[in-house]
């Protein structure tokens, strides 16, 4: 077992570590199919060997060539460290600067097997969101960070540590770019080749910027999305008795079962990957599994007798009004109709007692909370719901979405309904063209079922995973007549649900307590709640107050639901004023030792200013600039100029390679006045940039917020748009 000291000593070469190959019993990334020519294969091998001196190249070359042949990429499994990969306390890292130790803490969290989707392939989430391209890059990065001073900056080129360069104390300690491919060559086909060559990588959003905090982030986003969807589509604040159907229990989508419970609805989630559901079950996020689709639908229809007996049998109070079920179909190791017990139960729910748990038709009347899972393809679930509608006249679903990794549909992000999970993986590697055809047929079937349900009082939205974009490319009926390029038959969640929240400056602000102590996190929760409550007491707009109240509720629920996976982290949606105030409060708590170690501030790239993505974050930009990336690039540069500890700029993320430019940051609070100065300056820019852009595009709420911000800060001067009051001026000028 390696130590942190050994991990920071550079590539282990003498002796070389044992080649243990792929580890059994952990999930692995799908086989990639880059279709390299013989010359390109030689280039990929040469590129991998340049990390190593000539005396070991002869030994390493055959195994690297085998990896390329078997898996479509050279991961360098031999160099996967023999250490418990997790976020250690910042004091344990052998570094010269707190900033470097904080970055190490974040990197190791992204690769923690409890956090990462495919840890041995260095994938954190999203099916292909890489932290590094290979393990040699990991070792070198840790070595450089351990040596870095306050007058050096580490430069990262798509996972590759280019080196330490002289800089100043005010400069970022780390600058990351991922996937910065010339636009004409930023295609999926070209990406597969470039990744296989080891010269670029897909960092998703917070995977390649070292800022992922586990599924807590997407839980919070899903909670807010479903709450606001209910307000917009159903006209309600209370989701009790309402049914939400979606898919995915993987790296990001795994949050959905927990989110359904927090908002108080009935959630039905489909998942094809046994490993993904087992991971969520072991974490306690899934309380029960079954392998019968009929039983899953039955629970959506008929309340069985003996609920009081079932609750008493399970050791629960008879009056309990919470029933969280997670039922999965086609789970190979389980027998037909078998269920596993909820976490913490002394006995599995097998045989007759399982029939006593409450299904959602009656649960809708009783307004109970359920999280129902279906292990099988989501298309079969949608088609079965259509069958129930057509045969009984009853629509069993109110809200729907999709969280498959549709940004990567032909390499494991979406599995076609015609094949089993294993069959799909085999065909994906052996015949990519046929696999693609089946995926597109499956997408057409899925949309057809959703369209039928939408004829009733059912509302569907795209969750920013490129589902509708890929469905359109597959020929599915998603067209919205007379609409622009970014609009479909169903809206994206930004267009209808979250877009106005972004326009008000609210977005996914987060922090990580590098001590690793849950007590430090509890202190930050208390501080953040206090800051938001004080802001409400001081008086804010009604729309802002609503968001603050949602987030106060979220913080309280987060602690209760044990949402921390990996590092001691928290996320909430806040505006500029809230972010700055929370940062200042945390920094002061560090200064007076109420918090024991530095805290890293960050955010999801999916934010007010961080991402230009015409089919997601900027899909509600209607002045024609949705396809322009000035905002994200300016944000990256502006954060670097204003005090960020590290900055990152990525091609891809969310909706896929070539579809988005996005950036993020890390800012280390260490209790010093300098840290507070940086936080005030950088966080203000990080929000105002995006609000100003959204204002210029014509968004009225953004206009109001940026005007208010200018009144509060005389140094901020933003160009404001003038409306065309009379549309006839345009028509007459163009002689229409």
From TrEMBL:
<dbReference type="InterPro" id="IPR023636">
    <property type="entry name" value="Urocanase_CS"/>
</dbReference>
<dbReference type="InterPro" id="IPR038364">
    <property type="entry name" value="Urocanase_central_sf"/>
</dbReference>
<keyword id="KW-0456">Lyase</keyword>
<comment type="similarity">
    <text>Belongs to the urocanase family.</text>
</comment>
<dbReference type="InterPro" id="IPR035401">
    <property type="entry name" value="Urocanase_C"/>
</dbReference>
<dbReference type="GO" id="GO:0019557">
    <property type="term" value="P:L-histidine catabolic process to glutamate and formate"/>
</dbReference>
<dbReference type="InterPro" id="IPR035085">
    <property type="entry name" value="Urocanase_Rossmann-like"/>
</dbReference>
<feature type="domain" description="Urocanase C-terminal">
    <location>
        <begin position="500"/>
        <end position="706"/>
    </location>
</feature>
<dbReference type="InterPro" id="IPR036190">
    <property type="entry name" value="Urocanase_sf"/>
</dbReference>
<protein>
    <recommendedName>
        <fullName>Urocanate hydratase</fullName>
        <ecNumber>4.2.1.49</ecNumber>
    </recommendedName>
</protein>
<dbReference type="GO" id="GO:0019556">
    <property type="term" value="P:L-histidine catabolic process to glutamate and formamide"/>
</dbReference>
<keyword id="KW-0520">NAD</keyword>
<dbReference type="InterPro" id="IPR023637">
    <property type="entry name" value="Urocanase-like"/>
</dbReference>
<feature type="domain" description="Urocanase N-terminal">
    <location>
        <begin position="85"/>
        <end position="211"/>
    </location>
</feature>
<dbReference type="Pfam" id="PF01175">
    <property type="entry name" value="Urocanase"/>
</dbReference>
<dbReference type="Pfam" id="PF17392">
    <property type="entry name" value="Urocanase_C"/>
</dbReference>
<feature type="domain" description="Urocanase Rossmann-like">
    <location>
        <begin position="214"/>
        <end position="301"/>
    </location>
</feature>
<feature type="region of interest" description="Disordered">
    <location>
        <begin position="15"/>
        <end position="35"/>
    </location>
</feature>
<comment type="pathway">
    <text>Amino-acid degradation; L-histidine degradation into L-glutamate; N-formimidoyl-L-glutamate from L-histidine: step 2/3.</text>
</comment>
<keyword id="KW-0369">Histidine metabolism</keyword>
<feature type="domain" description="Urocanase Rossmann-like">
    <location>
        <begin position="361"/>
        <end position="497"/>
    </location>
</feature>
<dbReference type="Pfam" id="PF17391">
    <property type="entry name" value="Urocanase_N"/>
</dbReference>
<dbReference type="InterPro" id="IPR035400">
    <property type="entry name" value="Urocanase_N"/>
</dbReference>
<dbReference type="GO" id="GO:0016153">
    <property type="term" value="F:urocanate hydratase activity"/>
</dbReference>
<dbReference type="GO" id="GO:0005829">
    <property type="term" value="C:cytosol"/>
</dbReference>
<dbReference type="InterPro" id="IPR055351">
    <property type="entry name" value="Urocanase"/>
</dbReference>
